[in-house]
Design a protein that fits this description.
Elements (H helix, E strand, L loop, with lengths): L1 H25 L1 H7 L8 H9 L23 E2 L1 H11 L1 H21 L5 E7 L8 E9 H72 L5 H35 L10 E3 L5 E2 L4 H11 L1 H19 L9 E9 L7 E8 L9 H66 L5 H36 L2 H4 L4 E2 L5 E3 L4
Parallel strand pairs: 1-4
Antiparallel strand pairs: 2-3, 3-6, 4-9, 5-8, 6-7
Helix pairs in contact: 3-6, 4-6, 5-6, 6-7, 6-9, 6-11, 8-10, 9-10, 10-11
Length: about 475
Amino acid sequence: MAGRCARAVSAGVFRMVHLRTWWTLALVPLIAGCTLKPQWPDPELNAARLTGESELIAVDTTGGTLDAPAIAGDSLRRADAIRMALTTSPAIQAALARVRQAYAEAHQERLLPNPVLTVVLKFPTSGGAPTVEPGIAADLLALLQKPSKVEAADHRLRAASAEAVVVVLDVFTQVQDRYAQVQALEAVMPVLEERRRLTDRLLEVARSRLKGGEGTRLDVTTLETQKVELEVEIAEQQLERREARLELARLIGRPSGSTEWRLDGWSEPTLGGPDERAWVQAGLDHRPEVTAKMWELKALGVEFRQARWGVLEGTEVGVDAEGTAESGADEWSVGPSLVVPLPIFDWGQAKRDLITARRLEVAHQLTETRRQVVEDVRRAYAAFRSVTDARQRVCDELIPLLERRRSEAESQYRAGQSDIIPLILADQDLQTARAKLIELERRTAVSLSRLQRAVGGPGVSAASPATQPSSAPSTQPSK
């Protein structure tokens, strides 16, 4: 009995497989078209184009190390800091891994569903040979929706690629801002040291005048107070400098390494060419945040078109056969089979409503993103213009006036024509202006970086006559 059943099942399966072979030959073009791998969206190339970097970001499949290779020499050029940050950033690598996940999902959508083989063995209650009913079927709806699902997966792959470029631009901007901060902190230290030297010299003069009976104890006490306050300010600046360098070391992938690098000297960037309107249009055209939302909206549009087939979910088409396990019998009946759900309760309306709501959400998010881009560009453009003008006035007008004022106050004090207070105030105002100039230089560099980020990267702004800061090492770290 068992032998007859086994032979019958084998014969039935053989017939089904033989028939399936003809189906496969008929579907060769469809199979070939759906099993092709998706095209890689090249987020590395897009990131290099938008950031203006020639070196592509390589995918790290090891998970990364705590510290990247050491820097050659004792200088850290701005371009080297950016390159190291982009090539070692865990955030960028995680974003690229998400692109690889979307790529795998797009590839999965191209694969045809496996056919389902069923074998039913029936034993008559009245005795006799058992009946074998083998069948082979495939998900019809999955086959019909395959092109649309592939298209939607490809759109989401491109959206993931655009989101990865967003992360690259964020890291790029962050390392530029920190580099400018360290530059400013390095530049302000000589100003503080000059204030210390002048305070010591004035204190020495005040003590000499007190000893000679020309000065007052109040002058000496005032200068001693100024000296202590200055020492506290220097200590705070040194701590801030240390923290900024440690943060920059983390950004370039060397958190455990030395932070005593020589940095590039600050050079004034200039911005010419297009007006605000042109910058805004560049941001709307090139910002990857906008691109990502547009691809997501396209994917939802494809899914909405798919939703009309939702009523057929569970539909299967195939071939069924029936025969007996009687010895020597070769009586088999073979024919097509179709399993179709009856749309009594679910017509797919809820799924269509869900996708419609998602499309509406993403459409509003796209509008919000575009508005945010316009605001970002206009704010950054206005900030760069304003900070550049303020820096120019401080450099060309304010500091020369304060230097002359201090020189006159010191001459009057040495001649005994005034007390120490006017000289202290003149010196404080001069050093404050110099520190203000350094801060404005930092803000100028940061505002240019923010403007570049707002339009989609320096690779976009490079199309306009914007001059980048120089990169010749000239600033020695303070000890």
